[in-house]
Structure formats: C-alpha cells, structure tokens
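Input:
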Amino acid sequence: MTTPADPTTKQCPNCAEQIQEAALVCRYCGYDFVTLSRPQPPPPQQAKTNGFSIAALVLGIVWIYWIGSILAVIFGHVALNQIKQADGRQTGRGMAIAGLVLGYIGIATLVLFIAAVAFASEV
Ligand SMILES: [Zn+2]
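Output:
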C-alpha cells in the first residue's frame, strides 16, 4: 500500500495514475469509482424510438381541427418507413400505427363532416 504524495489525490486501481480524491471516474482510463468497475465498452446500438412515431401518435390524439390528423398520417408513414430502414435499430412501430389509425379516423370524420355540411346546405 503506497501512500499518495498529495492527500487530495488517490491512486487509480486500474491504471495507477494519481487522480483527484473526489473523482468519481478516473480521468486517465475511465475507471468508475462509484461502481468500482473498469470502463465498459458502450452497449451495442440501443434501439431508439423513432421521433416521427411519437409525433404521429401525439398529433393523432390532439387532432387540432384535423390538422393533427393529416400530420399524424404523414408522420406515421414517415415513421414506418424510417423504422423499416433502421432494421431493428428503431422502435415505435406500434405508436406509428396507432397515430396512423387515429389520423385516418380523424380524416374520415372530416369527410363525413364535409358531406353532412354539403347535404345540410342542399336541403
Ligand atoms: Zn485510471
């Protein structure tokens, strides 16, 4: 056991460099003093949720006088395309489909609404 020359420093058990006593991570090698573990290689590409799928779902729900419905359909299709191209690196397919369905329902009610207005003005 070697005593550090400077009391404000400690020795890294991984690379034996003198680092700040309060350091939580070795600045030389990345040794983690919190979990007492050597630096881990970054985890293999984590699947990210596609942003468009979240937008599609939110817009499908908020509706905003059919603007949201139309955008939900557009974003839903963009999201599904991107998720397909990402080849497993992106998630959110369920949300994109939910947004698409809500968007199409919204547009369907718009069509019915226009038809009803047109019918009412005829009579
Ligand atoms: Zn170190």
